Amino acid sequence: MSSGTLVGLPEGMQRLKQDRYYAVVADDHAIVRxxxxxxxxxxxxxxxxxxxxxxxxxxxxxxxxxxxxxRPDLLLLDVSMPLAGGVEVxxxxxxxxxxxxxxxxxxxxAVGLVSDLVEAGVDGLFSKASSNEEMxxxxxxxxxxxxxxxxxxxxxxxxxPKPAILTDxxxxxxxxxxxxxxxxEIAEGLGISIKTVDKHRTSLMQKLKVHSVPQLMALALKxxxxxxxxxx
Amino acid sequence: MSSGTLVGLPEGMQRLKQDRYYAVVADDHAIVRxxxxxxxxxxxxxxxxxxxxxxxxxxxxxxxxxxxxxRPDLLLLDVSMPLAGGVEVxxxxxxxxxxxxxxxxxxxxAVGLVSDLVEAGVDGLFSKASSNEEMxxxxxxxxxxxxxxxxxxxxxxxxxPKPAILTDxxxxxxxxxxxxxxxxEIAEGLGISIKTVDKHRTSLMQKLKVHSVPQLMALALKxxxxxxxxxx
DNA sequence: AATTGTATGGGGTAAACACCCCAATGATTA
DNA sequence: TAATCATTGGGGTGTTTACCCCATACAATT
Lengths: 232, 232
Known about the structure:
The structure is a homodimer.
Chain A: E1 21-26, H1 30-41, E2 51-57, H2 60-70, E3 74-78, H3 86-96, E4 101-106, H4 111-120, E5 124-127, H5 133-143, E6 148-149, H6 151-159, H7 168-178, H8 183-190, H9 194-208, H10 213-223
Parallel strand pairs in A: 1-2, 1-3, 3-4, 4-5, 5-6
Helix pairs in contact in A: 2-3, 3-4, 7-9, 8-9
Chain A binds a DNA duplex through α7 and α9.
């Protein structure tokens, strides 16, 4: 969460506090790993005493293993790797070493991948296509706890809002809510109890990440999730 | 409220319950009054023992006086009358004889007049231009407590929604409500107390005749009362 | 000078909402 | 067969609405 510390080895123990960052590099191409390692270890890249690459791996499972072993400050991760993909690695890393910052490099920018990574909580997401300058610039901030998603990926997320998979009942409920129906009216309309409507409503709000009906309406209208013919 | 009853005379007293409707007819033309009376008293027009016209008047003040005196079940009222117009008569009738059904005949269909009458609570509103058949048909239902506004007037109201004059504060509040702000947030945003926001909010709902935020939103969006750029 | 309208708020209240926990169905899927 | 998910719903709770009454202050009208 802060500076280079907590780099432990035996699963539970933790290292001495020291002003150095430890990193694991994961990429299936040895050449790329070498390049990344050299760049990371270049003095002056980050504050304090720089970064030390404590492990290099070429597949996902190894990446997870090394992170569990070293609990590094940073995992530099290529999405396309054998044995375990970027997202699975992320999840495991989060489980076993929550304080490890995960920076992902990706060549592809599929919506699914990007949003999965962001939801899994990547700390950094950059394109392999462009130069790595951007990543190197942002790295210090990331290590301090900031998140950096390259603009192109933010754009992708923006243009491709999660369809927000609503169940039938939730969608029906949404339509009625937006038409100004109260929970009681909806319950009567759908022939179910108020409590159930209440449940659907709460699920809706959580799925759509809103906290009030007006926000719900604005979102639903914008996303075209409902008929424009809003008759009361 | 139900059948022909409560037709009292001396201001406070009330008549014996009987299955007969009592009516007052108000129109400034004697010929019209006669025609209306004949039609009303025609047997079989309404259930029970028909209608008895207990008074005919040619001006608004007399209409009010007769209604106070007889407390009839029905007041058949022409809008254009000397001394007191249709709306004023309505208001007074409502005050002095709340159970009297007021059916208004009008030649003009000005928006202001129509909406005033409807808001004052006319029980029936029909055009003098067309035949009175429609009114005679609806009369039984009106006497039972239903309201009937001729479709042409409903259309007028529909096409001519009240501009709803909102004050500055109300408009500001509306804009914030629609953006999903809670009363507390609005209060902080405007630098006033929650109670005042609450007041504005209530005023809004009443002016716009809605009872829930979604209805408020839909109306505001439809009327273009707010910016379409609904950003949360 | 008296009324009306806007804006400000305190007290109070019943209803509605948002959300928590828990539990029991079926249907789908692993 | 076990696990997941959608749907249903009861208990319960703190917050927010919507609206009531009342009162003050100030400006614009009448």
